[in-house]
Write a sequence for this structure.
């Protein structure tokens, strides 16, 4: 059994939840390694649709365990609602553990998140980040400043009181803070509710590895939203890369077998920040409509555009992708031509092929250079049936051409192609990718 890491290769919302759910079929543990309720992983198991925010896809299958890992920031009241809602829908089928090291998001953090983003926008209307306002940045900041409260500490009333006292002192400038006493009472209560699930999760994972049990490390957000390697400051406050998945789980690098980069056949972005391949007008609206591109957490419309190979190559190098999962290819079906950005041209005439400029302003002003590939036909019921029975050989010829192009141009084999939201609407391509091991990384792919 193996340890596989699922990483967003674009700006988030690549359907990582769907891939993680498919991989969960052959795993024992599925671990969310970073972020918190800013994520919304939409999954369509048989019988309905669920959106997971702070629990991993492991909770949806009776034979798997979902772990919310040490790299996360968890809002306990929202988590309680998520658990109760899943129970009510009958989807909470696996058990779950919550890391005692994960940090707690408090109402103060949410207030601070909104206040700070408004401050940025007041100083400069273009500088607001458009965060999800879920308190992510401030909770991670308090973690780093060592003012944070951890999930495992909710069982200790004296410690909760002490930390709240400190946090209220540091946040006196914020408006409308809730009563500290009331918050303390609510935290102790929700801590009791969650207590049966809170534990040290690293030893569980180490033992799983010794026993040869499968583990999926489920990333949230994406490589281009990484605090350091994303489009700073238009980023989230965690490390949604494969390196971050190690810190976020407590696993060492040697145990990782595969790093699967998930990319849509096109691109989207929520919130502000550089997005060179964004398209306005009818083409963008079409992607938004057919792809249902509205935030699963905030409901905000997502900005839409074409697949960007410069960023895909960058994400591949940064994360060491061993394969790709290309998702939502059905959304592009019916187009006569499909544009793909192959390089950037800069103002001074130079070109960039496998990395964006470091500065967000420079990144925003690059000119994308496109190739166009032939489009593929609509996904009729008949085609879907054939794909379900025959697998990859039933993929339309033009789509195979698109997949091959992406694999060759990025140097990463495509292992999965997802053509619809339902569990099972995914085909798997030859894992060995022309006879080469997936571990070899940046190699060209051929049939
Ligand atoms: P934060 O993570 O709420 O601080 O938001 C920072 C930036 O990351 C904003 O542009 C958000 O829209 C974006 N972001 C955060 N989480 C997600 C996600 O799950 N999908 C897509 N974008 C996200």
């Amino acid at each position: 059994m193996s340890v596989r890491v699922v990483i967003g290769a674009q700006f988030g919302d690549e359907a990582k939840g769907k891939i993680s759910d498919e991989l969960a079929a052959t795993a024992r543990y599925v671990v969310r390694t970073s972020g918190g309720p800013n994520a919304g992983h939409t999954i369509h198991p048989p019988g309905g649709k669920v959106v997971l925010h702070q629990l991993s896809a492991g909770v949806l299958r009776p034979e798997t365990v979902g772990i919310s890992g040490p790299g996360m920031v968890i809002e306990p009241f929202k988590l309680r609602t998520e658990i109760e809602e899943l129970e009510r829908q009958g989807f909470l089928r696996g058990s779950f553990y919550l890391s005692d090291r994960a940090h707690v998001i408090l109402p103060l953090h949410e207030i601070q998140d909104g206040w700070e983003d408004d401050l940025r926008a007041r100083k400069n209307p273009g500088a607001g980040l458009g965060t999800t306002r879920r308190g992510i940045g401030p909770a991670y900041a308090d973690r780093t400043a060592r003012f944070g409260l951890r999930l495992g500490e909710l069982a200790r009333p004296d410690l909760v009181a002490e930390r709240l006292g400190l946090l209220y002192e540091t946040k006196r400038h914020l408006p409308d803070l809730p009563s500290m006493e009331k918050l303390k009472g609510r935290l102790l209560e929700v801590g009791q509710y969650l207590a049966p699930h809170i534990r040290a999760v690293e030893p569980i994972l180490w033992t799983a590895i010794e026993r040869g049990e499968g583990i999926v490390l489920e990333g949230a957000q994406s490589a281009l939203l990484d605090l350091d390697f994303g489009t700073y400051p238009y980023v989230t406050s965690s490390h949604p890369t494969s390196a971050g998945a190690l810190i976020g789980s407590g696993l060492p690098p040697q145990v990782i077998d595969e790093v699967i980069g998930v990319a849509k056949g096109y691109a989207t972005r929520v919130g502000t920040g550089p997005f060179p391949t964004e398209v306005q007008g009818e083409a963008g609206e079409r992607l938004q409509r057919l792809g249902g591109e509205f935030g699963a957490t905030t409901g905000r419309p997502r900005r839409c555009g074409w697949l960007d190979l410069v960023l895909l190559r960058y994400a591949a190098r940064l994360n060491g992708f061993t394969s790709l999962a290309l998702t939502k290819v059905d959304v592009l079906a019916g187009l006569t031509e499909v544009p793909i950005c192959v390089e950037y041209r800069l103002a001074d005439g130079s070109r960039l092929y496998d990395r964006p400029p470091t500065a967000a302003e420079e990144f925003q002003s690059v000119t994308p250079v496109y190739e166009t590939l032939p489009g593929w036909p609509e996904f009729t019921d008949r085609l879907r049936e054939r794909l379900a029975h025959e697998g990859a050989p039933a993929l339309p010829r033009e789509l195979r051409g698109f997949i091959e192009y992406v694999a060759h141009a990025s140097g990463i084999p495509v292992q999965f192609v997802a053509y619809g939201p339902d569990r099972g609407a995914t085909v798997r391509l030859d894992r060995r990718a022309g006879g080469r091991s997936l571990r070899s990384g940046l190699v060209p792919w051929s049939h």
